[in-house]
Amino acid sequence: MTETALIFGSLFGFTAVIFGAFGAHLLKKKLTQDLLNSFETGVKYQMYHAIVLLTLGFNLDTKSSIDTYITYAFIIGTILFSFSIYGLVISSAKNKKLKFLGPITPLGGLFLALGWALLIFKFLF
Q1: What is the reported pTM?
Q2: CA–CA separation, 16 vs 76, rounded Å?
Q3: Distance between CA 125 and CA 20 in Å, rounded?
């Protein structure tokens, strides 16, 4: 599990930098300020959780099932939350909004919240 957290943390960090640059340089000219703010929110949350996964990866107990649940909650949450925002923003900019992605964003947020709640539980018990 530590390897999974480290790989996804590194991957999310790397792609957050790429997407952040993409948003700041290419999309800035093509998006409204509201869409650009949404895109930046996806990038921020992706980077925050990249850092969390890297921190967890270096500190996980490989025999603890709660650590597995925490890791997967953050991975799934980041993918659903950030990447659905990217899809919504880019499709909206092309006037072909992928409406099916709308409900996926809050589902991703729930997984992220679950990861944090499980982390609190781990620290308390």
Answers
A1: 0.94
A2: 16
A3: 37
Q: Is residue 111 a contact partner of residue 81, using CB atoms and an 8 Å limit?
A: yes
93, 39, 70, 99 alpha-carbon torsion, rounded to 10°: -20
Token look-up 């990249």 returns 50
User: DSSP letter at 62?
Assistant: T
Q: Please give the backbone phi and psi of residue 84, each rounded to the nearest 5 degrees, phi first.
A: -70, -35
Give how many domains the chain has, as a whole number. Answer: 1
- The whole domain housing 25 covers 2-124
Q: Is 98 helix (H, G, I), strand (E, B) or coil?
A: coil
In this structure, what is the dihedral angle of CA atoms 68, 110, 48, 5, given to the nearest 10 degrees? 20
Q: Answer for the pair 20, 43: CB distance below 8 angstroms, yes or no.
A: yes
pLDDT in tens, 65-117: 999 999 999 999 999 999 999 999 999 988 898 999 999 999 999 999 999 99
